[in-house]
Amino acid sequence: MKRSIPALRLVLISVLVAGCGSVFPKSQPSRYFALSSLSQAEETKDNSKRISVGIDPVRLPGYLDREEIMTRATPNRFVALAYDRWAEPLDENFTRVLAQNLTALLQSDRIIYYPWPPDKKPDYRVEIQVLRFESNWDREAELSARWTVRDATGGGRTDFRESRLTRPAKDNSVDGTVAALSETLADLSREIANSINIMAAQRER
Questions:
Q1: Threshold 0.85, pTM exceeds
Q2: Residue 190 class from Cβ within 10 Å (0-12 exposed, 13-18 middle, 19+ buried)?
Q3: Cis, bond preceding 118 (omega within 30 deg of 0)
Q4: Which domains does the chain have, with CATH numbers?
Q5: Residue 158 pairs with which residues in a beta bridge?
Q6: What is the pLDDT of residues 91-150, one digit of tens each?
Q7: pLDDT in tens, 13-38
Q8: Distance (Å, rounded) from C-alpha 185 to C-alpha 95?
Q9: Distances (CA, A) of 102 to 8, 16, 115, 178
Q10: Which helix (H) or strand (E) covers residue 205, if one does?
Q11: Which of 175, 87, 131, 150 is nearest to 96 (CA)?
């Protein structure tokens, strides 16, 4: 009987090791998301003068300065989606997609980020302070932002506005939520492009 004790121990250890998968399940793999830009089909009429636009650093609220995608559960409470993350810092993704949208809307390849070289100063500068950029439990995406377009050529024209843009997600998935957020950014891009076009037309008078 004494000789069978080591063998019994081995059996018990094997059972415990085999059961670890159920006692300590593998963690769920993270999923990574990014905002999407407008298609080239959104292009406006040809702008032969190729308006030059400089985008200042986009300012996001502190609660968005994280990898996890945030959802507003109540007016005063957020939930971080532990396994659903941004593929890159959100301020960088936001700025890059905004630039791509303005490139399509203004038909200009002269959309640059701050800091720009001294010899490539833009005609117009865009400043954006994001107040909200998240979805709620109803899967409605919201983008609230204060933004300014400045005539950087010395004309002194300035357009300051505050926008609140919402889009419903097409489904209850995180993919649908990110797509809806992308649509709100597209709407903001259209407002900014329209402001720039108006300012450019006024300057030509």
A1: no
A2: middle
A3: no
A4: 31-204 (3.40.50.10610)
A5: 150
A6: 999 999 999 999 999 999 999 999 998 888 999 999 999 999 999 988 899 999 999 999
A7: 454 445 555 555 567 899 999 999 99
A8: 10
A9: 72, 60, 18, 20
A10: none
A11: 87
